[in-house]
Amino acid sequence: MAFDTLRFSQRLSEAGLGPAQAAGVAAATAEAISQLVGQLATRHDLALLRAQMHGEMASLREELRGEMASLRGELRGEMASLRHDLDGLRRGTKAELAQLEMRMTIKLGTMMAGAVALAAALARML
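and the corresponding structure tokens:
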């Protein structure tokens, strides 16, 4: 960025400053502006930063995709394990229900036989 120190010095002189003072202020102002401009980012700097950020974002995307795929695999494994456990519980419950049904059938049969025997004994007594 160009700074016209001669024009700036002339304006200061026109405003009432002496030529030496105007030249000194113009030189100091030019130096300050030069330092500030040196700290500003250029279009090239911004383009490099943009490219760097795009690269980092792409890398992050790939990393996230990998982590998501790993998590999907873990979840599938956990789900398969839970299904297996659930199937085992279901089979165990069915077996327990079948045993319970068998015991209830035996008890009911015994109760029926006892009732028939009692009815027969009552019939003999009468």
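(Above: one complete record from the training split.) The mean pLDDT is 94.
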